[in-house]
Amino acid sequence: MTTPEIDTPETGITPGGTSGAFRDVLSKDHARRGKPPLHFVDMTPAQRIEKAAELGLPKFRVKQLANHYFGHFDVNAAEFTDFPAAKRDEAAAAFFPQLITEVTRQVADEGTTIKTLWKLFDGSLIESVLMRYPTRATLCISSQVGCGMGCPFCATGKLGLTRNMSTGEIVEQVRVAAKMMRDGEVAGGEGRLSNIVFMGMGEPMGNYNSVLSAVRQISAMPPEGFGISARNITVSTVGVVPGIKKLTAEGIPVRLAVSLHAPSDELRDELVPMNKRFNTTQVLDAAHDYWLASKRRVSIEYALMRGINDQAEHAQLLAKRLNHYGDNWAHVNPIPLNPIEGSKWTASKPEDEKQFLEILHRAGITATLRDTRGQDIDGACGQLAAKER
Fold it and tell me: Any idea which residues are catalytic in this one (predicted)?
C-alpha cells in the first residue's frame, strides 16, 4: 500500500540537529528572544536563599514562600499575612513574576474540559487542557512554544519550533489548574488535580532539563512541590532515544508514552520525521529498557488514520513488534485522529478501529481506544495550535 505524498515544511537546523537525517522544523518566529524572568521554581534552594538575602530577608522566609506557592497555589504576596508587609511587593516581584497570562478560556464536555490559551513574556502563545473525569482530573501541559518534530497530521507540528519553555512557564500551568480544581472552577465542584500529561505543545525530550525540573517539583511533597505522585505523571515523546535513555537513568517512576503511529520504518518515516534519525527498532528497544528499569508499562500512542495506518496488516505487525520482547510491557492507546484545519488526514472508520483493537487483543496486547476530549474546541490530541480566537 502506498501513502499519499506529504508536504514537507521548510526546515532548519537547531542545536543538536546537526547529525542524522532529521532536522527540526523551525517556526518563522524562531529566534533568540531572551530568557523568561527567573521564577521561584527556576531557582535552586541556594539561589532562593541568596535572592532573599538581597531583599534583607532571612532564609526561613523562603520556606514560607514555598508553602504559599506549592501548598496554597498562591502568588498574591499582598495577601501573605505571615510575611512582612513592607517586603511583600518586593518578594512578589523577585520570586513570582507573571510568566503566563490567560488570553482565552474555552469550555467543552459540559464544563469538564477547559482549554486555556496563554501568552508568555515575549508574546508567544501556548495552550493547556484541563480534563475532569469521574475519578481523576488530568492536565495536559505544553513544554515548548510550537514543535519542531514536523508530524504532518498534527496542528502543533505544523507550527514549527519557536523556543523551549522555562521550568517556571511549565510549572505555572500546573499551579493555575490545581487552583482551579481546588476553587471549584471546573464543573463538578471542588476537587484535586491528580494527573499531569506532557502531551500539549512541544516535544518534551527536546526540552529535557526544564521538563525534568518541572517533573521533580510537580511530584515533590509540599513545600518542595505540589505532591502529585510521579506515577500520575506521563512524559511523551515521538521517539527521541537519548531522552528516553536519560529518563530511564533518572529512576523517577513517571509513565513513558511513545507516539509511534506506525509499525514499520517505511510508513513511520512519512508520518513521524524523527524516525529518520531514530528508527522503530531503536525507539522500541529504548522504550522496553524503560519498562525493564521502572516496571511501569509504556504507553504506545497510535493515531488511527483512515487508509494509512489502520488496516489489519498494520495491527498485526504492531502486535508482532511489541510481542517480540516477550513480556507484557506495553499498553497501546489507539487514538481516532482528531481533525485539524485544512488537513487531508481523516479519522478511521469505526469498523476499522474495532478490527484494529480486536487484532491487538487476540495477540495478547493490552489496548484501549483513547477518549477524544475537547475535540469541538480544538483541545484534543494533535489539535493544539495556540490561535487567538
Answer: 127 (proton acceptor), 381 (s-methylcysteine intermediate)
pLDDT of residue 347: 87
Active site residue 127: yes
- For the entire predicted model, the pTM comes to 0.90
pLDDT in tens, 99-145: 999 999 999 989 999 999 999 999 999 999 999 999 999 999 999 99
Check the annotation: does 294 bind a ligand: no
What is the average pLDDT score of the chain? 89
CA 373: distance to chain centroid?
A: 16
For position 159, what pLDDT does the model report?
Answer: 85
Q: Is 140 annotated as a binding residue?
A: no
Catalytic residue among 127, 169, 172, 270: 127
